[in-house]
Specification:
With 384 residues, the chain is α+β, with helices and mostly antiparallel strands. It contains 15 helices and 13 strands. Strands 7, 8, 9, 10, 11, 12 and 13 form a seven-stranded antiparallel sheet that branches. Strands 1, 2, 3, 4, 5 and 6 form a six-stranded antiparallel sheet that branches. A hairpin with a 2-residue loop joins strand 9 (288-295) and strand 10 (298-301). Helix 4 packs parallel to helix 14 and helix 12 crosses helix 13. The two termini are 21 Å apart. The model is unreliable at 1-15 and 24-31 (pLDDT under 50).
Length: 384
């Protein structure tokens, strides 16, 4: 059983900020070509400039020091995600941030290109419009205190104690940037009493999008977490690969679901790389093998057995105490996902092709969103 601790509350500070900045990009209020909040500065100065810009609600300056690979994912998918979120009643206008007296403490170098800086004083408040579910959810996850009206959430760094919140920075191309993913991973390790390992998991790549998807799918279903981490993009998921051995130990044994072979994929080239949808595969469990092919909203076996369809997945994944509407909402959601075919999004590095979980999740959300109404979103939030 994994020992996933409470570090998510600390990581949520930067996650909330990144959500605010994503909204800024969507409405065209910020770009990365302007002056940096801390151009040419070291790790501590970057964190101080980043938080200072947020306290002044200078979101453009704050956005300029978000790690490039993380910013690229937001830029590539943020506009479409926020548009669908607005339609489904998840988000409203862009939240604002204000704060004062933010003080950073000492900086620790984890590696030559990774450092963490403590935030020891001051406060930040994120304000949202009525009906903005995303800001409230993120704020609640990090333990921020809500206002009586429920539209302002405040993080008091001083009240948490010195060193309780540490923000990670990474060096890319000779400059330091704030990194939401490194901050999240650092908080997870710290919350479980673990250090960053001396050596991470080396990236691996497929020779083509289809090869990467086949290897990734096989490793995922076999419970080979190390192989899954290795196939992630080394820029977007550098934090996960650097902490890989510790994360594998933290997760504990991951049971293999089934054996996978002869995976067939449909590959479509895109501006961000390529997308591959699994068309058919052979699964083996308990010594019995079967070939499954995607047909509409089902995966149909070649054995004459009952196909696995959207309703089956909905029944399997509905929590015991979920609202009674949950199975119907999930069935419609899975029906769209299976019918459209959710792609595994791959990106290319100098070594070959990798599977991007962030871009795959964004694409899955965009595919599923048209099947949901605001009421459906409320049901899912109550269920999960």
């Amino acid at each position: 059983m994994g020992r996933w601790g409470s570090g998510g509350r600390v990581a949520g500070v930067v996650a909330l900020v990144l959500g605010v900045l994503a909204g800024v990009v969507v409405v065209g209020q910020a770009g990365r070509s302007g002056p940096s909040a801390s151009a040419g500065a070291g790790p501590g100065e970057v964190v101080a400039g980043f938080l200072g810009a947020l306290a002044r609600n200078d979101l453009g300056a704050a956005w300029s020091v978000v790690a490039p690979a993380e910013a690229a994912v937001v830029v590539d998918h943020g506009r479409a995600l926020v548009a669908e979120g607005s339609r489904a009643g998840l988000v409203g206008a862009v939240p604002s941030v204000r704060g004062a007296d933010v003080v950073v403490g000492g900086t620790r170098r984890i590696t030559e290109r990774l450092a963490v800086t403590g935030v020891v004083g001051g406060w930040l408040t994120a304000s949202s419009t009525a009906g903005d579910v995303v800001t409230g959810r993120l704020a609640s996850a990090l333990g921020a205190a809500p206002s009586p009206g429920g539209q302002d959430w405040t993080v008091d760094f001083g009240a948490r104690g010195a060193g309780a919140v540490e923000i990670a920075t990474v060096e890319v191309g000779g400059r330091w940037y704030a990194s939401v993913l490194h901050t999240a991973v650092h908080a997870l390790l710290k919350g479980n009493g673990l250090d960053w390992p001396r050596r991470g998991i080396a990236p691996s790549a497929g020779s083509s999008p289809g090869a990467a998807v086949r290897r990734f799918t096989g490793a995922l279903l076999a419970g080979d977490l190390a192989a899954v981490i290795a196939l992630l993009p080394p820029d977007e998921m550098a934090a996960v690969q650097a902490a890989g051995p510790a994360l594998v130990d933290l997760a504990g044994p991951v049971p293999g679901v089934v054996g996978v072979r002869d995976v067939e994929v449909d590959v479509t080239e895109t501006a961000e790389g390529a997308r591959a949808v699994v068309r058919a595969l052979t699964l083996t469990t308990g010594g019995v093998s079967g070939r499954f092919s995607r047909e509409g909203a089902c995966y149909v076996p070649d054995t004459g057995a009952r196909p696995l369809c959207a309703n089956d997945l909905a029944a399997l994944l509905t929590p015991p105490h979920a609202p009674p509407e949950t199975p119907d909402v999930l069935a419609r959601l899975f029906d769209r996902l299976l019918t459209e075919g959710v792609p595994l999004v791959t990106t290319r590095s100098s070594a070959g092709w990798h599977v991007s979980p962030a871009r795959t999740l964004a694409q899955a959300l965009l595919t599923a969103a048209p099947a949901l109404t605001p009421a459906d979103v409320g049901v899912l939030l109550a269920a999960f």
